[in-house]
Amino acid sequence: MKEFSFKVYDEKIDDVSADIEIILIIDKNMNHKWVKDRDVLEYIGFKADENETVFLPESKRVYSASPSLHSDDIRLSVANAFKKIKKSKFQSVKLGLYTENCPPINARAMAEGIILGTYQFDKYKDKKRDFNIEIIKISTEDYNGKIYDKNSTLKAINEAIIISKATNETKNIVNTTPADMTPEKLAEYANELSKELRGVECFIGDENFLKNEKMEAFLAVAKASSNAPRLIHLTYKPNKKATKKFVFVGKGLTYDSGGLSLKPSEYMITMKSDKSGAAAAINIIRAVSELKLPYEVHAIIGAAENMIGGNAYKPDDVLKARNGKTIEVRNTDAEGRLVLADCLDYAQDLKPDYLVDLATLTGACVVALGEYTIGVMGNSSKLKKSILKASKKSGELTAQLPFNKYLKKLLKSDIADISNISSSRYGGAITAGLFLDNFIKDEYKDKWLHLDIAGPAFLEKSWGYNQTGASGAGVRLCIYWLKEFVYIENSVHKEVK
Ligand code: BES
Ligand code: ZN
Ligand code: ZN
Question: For residue 215, what are the contacts with CB-CB under 8 A and spacing of at least 6?
Fold first, then answer.
């Protein structure tokens, strides 16, 4: 991954030297002193329409339209500008801060747009694509010529680097092939990471551990694979006594063939992405540790491969989950919920204040919300609202999918306590969420959130500042959400609205 060097200057942008300058155009009239090439822009027909970007090599300026100064518009327009100069030989660029309200927020969005937007995955390519820009210089001058103290900008950029790096590392895991990222390899990755990070410990449970824990649902899914399953448990503890405990549970299907209810071949492609929830949870721990958040944070990963074979689990099997409930298997492709049922039960033993699972759980969620949006489910409106609020800041899209008692009934089984699929074709994202709800104890009902990331986790076509392939879905959302708690605790308004 490209590591940029960010430098902040409390000087006017014109006094900062760099190979090129990037100028965001917020006002379509281009009536601003920073737009020094107005005549040329007019001459070439540049209208500053959404996503329009132009590079003027003579004046060494890149102009990029930004419909507003909302963080996500800034992320995208800066990413667009970088795309324009990707192949150039320039080494340094400079940018100003634009607004007088809260300049660090803009700097944060710029850094995120740059790091996320320039990500590329070339692990399997012979020729690695080069990118020459090394240094990014940010002047703390705003649009009105006022210069700000550089410390808050530096702090915001450092946070942006941590958050974006965690997102890009998530993409690396998800993009890695199933042969190179088996449950065992994923566990190794988490273990190595724990050694690098401050305050982080890693526990890995093998098949025997899962047997002792009576995680029969999890084990059934993993049975037919020659790559054994792992439960990965990362724990971050801050220096001072933690004020809250968060547990993130990640679906870590390193491959989902569908099992005996085999996926058609065109649906099987991209199923290496079924470990996206796991990759996100692991990298949330990375970011939390690097940001030194004052909370105890756990990641519980259920890593397994859903395969076929003579000993595969079958439709008609009845499994006993860790919490004692029996599950009738009617479709082996609804495997994520089986792994999560046991992992969520294990997670509740940790007595969390908040419990969040991240999973590429259902194709139905993609049908319901489209490819760009994370489905948010749970029993507490307050908690759901808090994540929807964080979503706006993070730039990740979310929408709430409501539970109801009628959908809940569709999971009834004649032979067991519950069926692993709904008896109806409709509402599949919600019935999957309701299946998980069956494994949440009463005292944790209001503390639990389910995030279905099946849509945005893996892109067939690039959009926004996301590349084709993995997007790192859920990482930024959860980190911004966690940071919001820090903010709430430190402010007079303690209420999570
Ligand atoms: N991993 C899939 C869900 C998925 C689909 C993720 C598309 C990403 C993109 C999951 O295990 C699955 O196969 N779900 C089934 C559930 C069904 C059998 C009730 C599905 O969505 O079809
Ligand atoms: Zn499946
Ligand atoms: Zn799956």
Answer: 231, 321, 322, 342, 343, 346
Other Cβ atoms less than 10 A from the Cβ of 263: the count is 16
Any atom of ligand 1 within 6 Å of the Cβ of 360: yes
Residue pLDDT, tens place only, 340-385:
999 999 999 999 999 999 999 999 999 999 999 999 999 999 999 9
**Given the residues 108, 223, 337, 393, the one annotated as active site:** 337
CATH 3.40.630.10 fits 181-493, yes or no: yes
316 Cα–ligand 2 center, Å: 16
Q: Atom of ligand 1 at shortest distance to CA of 365?
A: 21
Structure confidence by residue, pLDDT tens digits, 118-131: 999 999 999 887 78
Backbone angles phi, psi at 348, to 5 degrees: -70, -20
Banded model confidence at residue 494, pLDDT cuts 50, 70, 90: very low
Q: Name the residue ranges covered by the structural domains of the chain.
A: 5-163, 181-493
Q: CA-CA distance, 223 to 219, in Å (whole number)?
A: 6
- pLDDT above 70: residue 101: no
Q: How far, in Å, from the CA of 453 to the mean position of ligand 2? A: 14
Burial class (CB in 10 A: 0-12, 13-18, 19+), 208: exposed
Indicate the top mutation candidate among 362, 369, 453 to test ligand 1's pocket, ranked by most ligand atoms within 8 A of CB. Answer: 362
Whether 428 lines ligand 1, by a CB cut-off of 6 Å, is yes
Cβ of 334 closer than 6 Å to ligand 1, yes or no, is yes
**398 Cβ neighbours under 8 A, 6+ residues apart:** 373, 374, 375, 376, 387, 388, 391, 451, 477
Which are the contacts of 476, defined by CB distance < 8 A and separation ≥ 6?
Answer: 112, 163, 167, 394, 395, 396
The structure's pTM equals: 0.97
Instruction: Note the helical H segments in 89-149.
Output: 103-117
3-state helix, strand and coil shares in percent for the chain, rounded to the nearest 5: 40, 20, 40
Contact present, 20 and 150 (Cβ < 8 Å): no
Antiparallel, parallel or unpaired: β 20-25 and 318-320: unpaired
Going by pLDDT thresholds of 50, 70 and 90, the confidence category of residue 32 is confident
Domain 5-163: homologous superfamily in CATH:
Leucine Aminopeptidase, subunit E, domain 1 (3.40.220.10)
Helix (H), strand (E) at residue 55 = strand 53-56
Q: Is 178 touching ligand 1 by the criterion CB < 6 Å?
A: no
